[in-house]
Amino acid sequence: MVHKVKGAVVRSKGAPVTLETILVPDPGPGEALVDILTCGVCHTDLHYKQGAINDDFPFLLGHEATGIVSAVGPDVTEVAPGDRVVLNWRAVCGECRACAKGQPQYCFNTHNAAQKMTLEDGTELTAALGIGAFAEKTLVAAGQCTKVDPEADPAAIGLLGCGVMAGIGAAINTGNVKRGDSVAVIGCGGVGVAAVAGAALAGATTVIAVDIDPKKLERARDLGATHTVDSSAVDPVEAIRELTGGFGADVVIDAVGRPETYKQAFYARDLAGTVVLVGVPSPEMTLELPLLDVFGRGGSLKSSWYGDCLPSRDFPMLIDLYRQGKLDLDAFVTERITIDQIEEAFDKMHSGSVLRSVVEL
Ligand SMILES: NC(=O)c1ccc[n+]([C@@H]2O[C@H](COP(=O)([O-])OP(=O)(O)OC[C@H]3O[C@@H](n4cnc5c(N)ncnc54)[C@H](O)[C@@H]3O)[C@@H](O)[C@H]2O)c1
Ligand SMILES: [Zn+2]
Ligand SMILES: [Zn+2]
Q1: Does ligand 1 come within 6 angstroms of the Cβ of 191?
Q2: Which of 52, 172, 202, 252 could form a disulfide with 47 if both were Cys (CB 3.0 to 4.6 A apart)?
Q3: Of ligand 1's atoms, which has the minimum distance to the CA of residue 191?
Q4: Is residue 221 a contact partner of residue 290, using CB atoms and an 8 Å limit?
């Protein structure tokens, strides 16, 4: 059976998001059909719309979602109809060279649904990050469903499906932030503020939030920043050095992903410190740095895909911390909107007025 549902689609580079009827097949082997409850609007959806990820239009957007499994394919054992799930884009294969080395968080062959969702005329859709959850139903690989506590607010925990997990993981997994560390985060949207919260959770004693928008800095303070720097007004490298005894921070996280913010991160880091790039650059961007500085300053320059998370390990752990009041996921949900308000949510993302808009389906 094929299910006809509404979904938010971008047909070509820069085109507006349109609500279309999409056809979602019943799950085949290894697949699960999910009734979506909520899906957050992430900056990566905007990157897709702008053609900055790839050219495989039309895209079915949305990838930060919770839902209820409504059907599973014949051989699926990990989830069953009725399960409350957060969708993930790291369904690990268990067989690639990363998985074989016991590092499934780097899996090089993650699973998505084998069947395609389509428009009514049969045009195949590319689901954003293999999820496509700005839709009433979506089809994913069963491993993309992480079973979670059905009591927790779906709008809040759904954000673990991408941005909040990427940010927290950039701090606790990739950056390996430890008790007593100093951490600076450049760019305090949903991802950056999550990195601030992650650094605070890990016990960092100096957490410096940097943004060009003062509204973002206020929220970063609520979520654990000990200091804030408005980099539209002052040089962030100098400001971070001043706040860290003149040395720079142990870990600097770039949650913007532009050459200029990466350079700030590089020079705002202490000798032997760590830079973590979690913001996603666009294809035309290049980076120039004196190689002698790369060598001479030591330490490590890392990139963080999805916060190097393992969904089955990290989502339930973070939901436990949320339920214990140690991680304020509610604070990330600025507004709850309907599926026809995604374009407005992109505008608000630019204007800095929201941390996350969450679509309720
Ligand atoms: N690595 C991953 O797995 C992963 C996952 C999700 C999102 N992302 C990426 O993370 C980035 C941030 O996503 P988001 O959803 O938080 O976006 P967002 O638009 O909500 O936030 C971006 C923030 O950066 C600030 N900013 C912009 N230019 C700046 C500058 N020059 N200096 C300082 N601050 C600046 C903005 O004011 C805003 O607060 C995006 O590139 C997104 O694609 C990466
Ligand atoms: Zn693998
Ligand atoms: Zn995302």
Answers
A1: yes
A2: 52
A3: 16
A4: no
pTM: 0.96
Q: What are the pLDDT digits (tens) for 54-69?
A: 999 999 999 999 999 9
3-state secondary structure of 348: helix
Closest listed ligand to the CA of 96: 2
- Atom 36 of ligand 1 has which residue's CA nearest to it? 187
Cα 47 from Cα 279, distance rounded (Å): 11
Q: Which atom of ligand 1 is nearest to the CA of 43?
A: 15
Pick the CATH number of 2-161+328-360 from 3.40.50.300, 3.30.70.920, 3.90.180.10, 3.30.1640.10: 3.90.180.10
Strands 118-119 and 18-25: antiparallel
At 147 the three-state DSSP class reads strand
The ligand 1 atom nearest the CA atom of 193: 16
pLDDT along the chain (361 residues), means of 10: 97 96 98 98 95 95 98 96 98 98 97 98 98 98 97 97 98 98 97 98 98 94 97 98 98 98 98 97 96 97 98 98 97 97 94 92 96
Domain boundaries, given as residue ranges, for the chain: 2-161+328-360, 167-305
CB distance 25 to 145 below 8 Å: no
Q: How far, in Å, is the centroid of ligand 3 from the Cα of 359?
A: 14
What sections of 162-243 are H helices per DSSP?
163-169, 190-201, 214-222, 236-243
Largest CA distance in the chain: 64
If DSSP codes are grouped into helix, strand and coil, which group holds residue 305? coil
Q: Determine whether the shortest distance from the Cβ of 42 to ligand 1 is under 6 A.
A: yes
358 lines ligand 1 (CB under 6 A): no
List, in order, residues 6 or more apart from 248 with CB less than 8 Å away. Answer: 240, 241, 267, 268, 269, 270, 271, 273
Q: Which residues pair with 60 in a beta bridge?
A: 9, 127
Nearest atom in ligand 1 to 280's CA? 41
Quickly count: other Cβ atoms within 10 Å of residue 131's Cβ. 29
Q: Per CATH, which fold does 167-305 belong to?
A: Rossmann fold (3.40.50)
